[in-house]
Amino acid sequence: MASDQDLVIETVRDILGSHEPFVLTAERRWDEPLWTALAEAGLTGVGLPEEAGGSGGELADAVAIVRTLAAGAAAVPVAEQLLVAGPALLAAGLDLPAPEQPTTFAIGDAVTVHPVDNGDGPGRFTLSGTVTDVPWAGAASSVAVLVPAPAGMEGSLLALVDVSSLPATDAFNLAGEPRGTLVLDQAAAAGALLTVAQADAVRARYALARAVQLAAALEQVLAWTVQYAGERHQFGRPLGKFQAIQMELAEMAGEVTAVTALTDAAVQAQDRAENVVLAAAAAKVRAGAAVEVVARLAHQVHGAIGFTQEHKLHHLTRRLWSWRDEAGSELVWSRVLASGLLADGPEGFWPALTRVG
Amino acid sequence: MSTSLTLAPAPRSEAAERVRAEVREFLAAELAAGTFTTHVDTWLGGVDPAFSKKLGERGWLGMTWPKKYGGHERSAMERYAVTEELLAAGAPVAAHWIADRQSGPNLLTYGTEKQREEILPRIVAGECYFVIGMSEPDSGSDLASIRTKATRTADGDWLVNGAKVWTSNAHHSHYGIVLVRTSPADSANRHAGMSQLLVDLSLPGITINPIRILDGGHHFNEVVFEDVVVPGDMLLGEEGNGWHQVTAELAFERSGPERFLSTYPLVAEFGRRVAQTGDPAQLAVLGRLSARVLALRQMSLRIAAALDRGELPNIPAALVKDVGTTFEADVIEEIRKVVDVTPSLDSADPLARALAEAQLHQPGFTLRGGTNEILRGIVARGLGLR
């Protein structure tokens, strides 16, 4: 069943394994050699149809790539390109940039839009305003940006902006991943108008992408912690032989299993195009909630070495603490989820829960 | 992660969704007719034989069992949908719960043909109820230390002496599956020498004494066996195989939706309150609780799918129960943080009543069926630590 994905995962692991672990700094904002290797292997177009310039394959394949890279703390905009920008542009009927050109995704609520022609389908627009929290700003060559529709129109606009020559501010998340600001000044862009529901579905893709990354990183942190507890000896035996440590690791495993089960279900919902917003909302909320437990206990079990940059743990725990608040925090998505479940009134709450998954 | 903890995603089951709709319709009609009222933790406290018989008539008990014993040969996924709907509605399901969940499956695996033919059709009809005879006054988490003893008589019967505790609804039930020592304890192999007996609770020498829980409810009992003669053909499975058989029951006992939905009626009541107030803080809490329910559903559904594949996933079941029972207890504090309601069993406010019921039942959630500490020990074994 998963043989194609196993092959994809193996390929990504091989490429990751041949690269030095990447330490992000203000000067080294992304792992360009890794991106090039992934692009040359066709992995930056997976899940996007060949006729649109992609490499073909299923959503599940793209998710497998994103998971493997997230677990490896890879500093490349693959989640943004394969799970958000690519499919959102495609669904909006816009042309995709070449898959070897890194394309990111951002939400620009403060951007104003003017149509250049008067088409109401895909058309040309100019965008002006500030877009903050742009993942991989300064590294990505284009950004698919979700902005308010032109004045007097309902909904949103999804636009593809070439940002290869735009400077990005120095802003980074807790893991050092670029999250800078771009200032658009009459930037020309291809764009497509989206209904409110279509725009919500795009935001849900973004949340699901981060949930998928969180799930993979949580699993990896658990695996590292179990391994460390087996290797580190105190009082003459491995840490993992102490009941107190076993209880902590079991609690972590419970959280990780819950996140994986719900994220898998949200990916399936996305694949079937059913209840995508509520399923993604739930996955993002549950994954974000697990971070507190898993990161805290992972550091507790690792002791002081895990609190230093000499040990690998921080590559993932700092990402966990960042990703849980990106693409909408648990607060934002929990309200979306509850409002959606109550849409048919309180008596419809349980039926809605069972429909979501 | 260790493969012993992970299970494949559950496939979607259209049949389960069909039966779910039927159960929902039935429950709406019963609620409208006033034959039951919604309560928290009804799989412990809601004994209603008439209701159990109605479920039996509709084919919702013994759903997965062979037709030759009255069962319906439906999937574990369909059974999951039925049990989940009953719990979400807070329906009175306690009478038949244990028999349908684990005693019947235990009989199917280990029972003799005579035992199955006599008992299973009555469980399917909602007329025959079971208790679990595991814990004892001096044996809780350390189940292998039980002392209830069964010795062979000259006639080939079993002479049983000892006591079992926390036996839910023994005063309404017909049989117990009782774990007994049939050989003296062996310190070199603590799990050897135990057997399961199928015990008719009306036999002479059995005394059932009530033990009241925090809200005053009588669900628990102490069941005392004084020179009880259990017929020789009421051994369940193999003599000496009791520990293994008990372990096999646990995948059924630990993985179902009752391990996270005991307080769902409180969540539903809170949902009604949030729909009235529209309060953003309450909305966020409802969303967080919902995400946890949704994750637990996926975990529990994966186990139902594994049961349909013929697996007995004991370690994932322990994990689901740990996460699930933690959740059903957390519900109370999460809701308390955002509502100003004083819990009371006799309040006119349904939210205050649900909070009160949940609070007074809460300590049991993370104890019954294996404490969360025991469960985490099992999960740690699944992680390769033990």
The assigned CATH architecture of the largest domain in chain A is Beta Barrel
Q: What portion of residues of chain A is helical?
A: 40-55%
Average pLDDT confidence of chain A is 95
How do the helices and strands follow one another from N- to C-terminus of chain B? HHHHHHEEEEEEEEHHHHHH
Tally the structural domains of chain B: 3
Q: Would you report the number of β strands of chain A?
A: 8
* Helical proportion of chain B, percent range: 40-55%
CATH class of the largest domain in chain B: Mainly Alpha
Radius of gyration of chain B: 21 Å
The oligomeric state of the chains shown is heterodimer
- How would you sum up the major sheet of chain A? 6 strands, mixed
Q: What is the structural class of chain A? A: alpha+beta
Reading off the top of the CATH hierarchy, the class of the largest domain in chain A is best stated as Mainly Beta
Query: In percent, how much strand structure appears in the residues of chain A?
Result: 15-25%
Protein name (chain A): Acyl-CoA dehydrogenase
Pfam families (chain A): Acyl-CoA_dh_1, Acyl-CoA_dh_N
Cofactor (chain A): FAD
Family (chain A): Belongs to the acyl-CoA dehydrogenase family.
List the helices and strands and how they pair.
The complex is a heterodimer of chains A (357) and B (386).
Chain A: H1 3-17, H2 32-40, H3 59-71, H4 78-91, E1 103-107, E2 112-115, E3 123-135, E4 142-148, E5 156-162, E6 179-194, H5 196-231, E7 233-234, E8 237-238, H6 243-272, H7 276-302, H8 313-323, H9 330-341, H10 349-356
Parallel strand pairs in A: 1-4
Antiparallel strand pairs in A: 2-3, 3-6, 4-5, 5-6, 7-8
Helix pairs in contact in A: 1-3, 3-4, 3-5, 4-5, 5-6, 5-7, 5-8, 6-7, 7-8, 7-9
Chain B: H1 14-33, H2 42-45, H3 49-57, H4 76-88, H5 94-110, H6 113-124, E1 130-133, E2 149-152, E3 158-165, E4 175-181, E5 194-200, E6 206-212, E7 218-230, E8 235-236, H7 242-254, H8 264-277, H9 280-308, H10 314-336, H11 350-365, H12 372-382
Parallel strand pairs in B: 1-4
Antiparallel strand pairs in B: 2-3, 3-7, 4-5, 5-8, 6-7
Organism (chain B): Blastococcus xanthinilyticus
Domain Acyl-CoA oxidase/dehydrogenase middle (chain B): 132-228
Pfam family, one (chain B): Acyl-CoA_dh_1
